[in-house]
Amino acid sequence: MLYPLTFEPIFKDKIWGGQKIKTILEKDFSPLPNCGETWEVSGVDGNISVVAEGALKGKNLKELVGEYKEKLVGEHVYETFGDTFPLLVKFIDANDDLSIQVHPNDELAKERHNSLGKTEMWYILEADEGAKLNSGFNREVTKDEYVKAVADNTLTDILNMEDVHAGDVFFLPAGRVHYIGKGILLAEIQQTSDITYRIYDFDRTDDKGQKRELHTELAVDAINYHHYDDYKTRYEKKRNESVNAVTSDYFVTNVLNFDQEVLHDYTHVDSFVILVCVAGALTVQTEGGYNVPLKMGQCALIPASINSVTLVPDGDMTVLESYVP
């Protein structure tokens, strides 16, 4: 019988990573010096999540999708994606600025890499005072202007920068230029894809004096050059109510901020549900007597065959609830 699944984190050492995965999320990434990311729920080849607890402990997510099919992911999801698990959940600790980058859409990623594209969202868990991130351009930009700015090393002059605070949400469709600034700890929910075109890396070098590879030519045709009036995702922050933050073709994400017990019914959702605890702690209870404790920085995958869960907060908690529409 399927039950709420938790997975072993996959730790990623990054040139820009820090210590918050350890100090704030309490995940021990020894012996890595600086952990920039943990992949919490992943079906990316070479980085497949492994079940941490229960009767299925030690099995990986690809094996589970192959074995349980629509019972795990939902009929519509299995018909669409087959044995590929369609979402990837990460925590990211930016101790330094990440590279300026862009991700291709499905069409371009399929053509160039035989992969899904990468639309994603960020939920800010914590931000140092003055922390900023980039989403999109600060004005209308032509392709030629962009290419010139890259060549002249003036790209940062045309980027839209946003002040960030805990609880902020940013939706980043494929094609949007972006980077996470230093001092930000966030949760990322995205399509299952690891295709990133790195445009500029602030001329930094690794411990061997090497610069990281850039993909400036690949990026040119992947970018959406349109300027938008508002890049921050607006949602109403409410207590003891489910609030929708993002609805896209690839995932729906709701923000649940509760300090009292709540029953969530998933009979209308033809998909698995991923719960990501981004503040506080709770216990996820299901029929059959399963109790899964989650604290800030932990996730649970609720299989599609489970029609309801009871969320029991330990004080005040905030959870992201994501599924495939």
UniProtKB/TrEMBL annotation:
Keyword Translocase assigned: no
Domain Mannose-6-phosphate isomerase cupin, chain residue ranges per copy: 244-322
UniProt domain Phosphomannose isomerase type I catalytic: residue ranges: 8-115
GO molecular function: mannose-6-phosphate isomerase activity; zinc ion binding
Binding locations of Zn(2+): 103, 120, 178
InterPro entries reported for this sequence: Carb_Metab_Reg_Kinase/Isom, Man6P_isomerase_Firm_short, MPI_cupin_dom, PMI_typeI_cat, RmlC-like_jellyroll, RmlC_Cupin_sf
Residues annotated as catalytic: 198
Protein name: Phosphohexomutase
Species of the source: Fibrisoma montanum
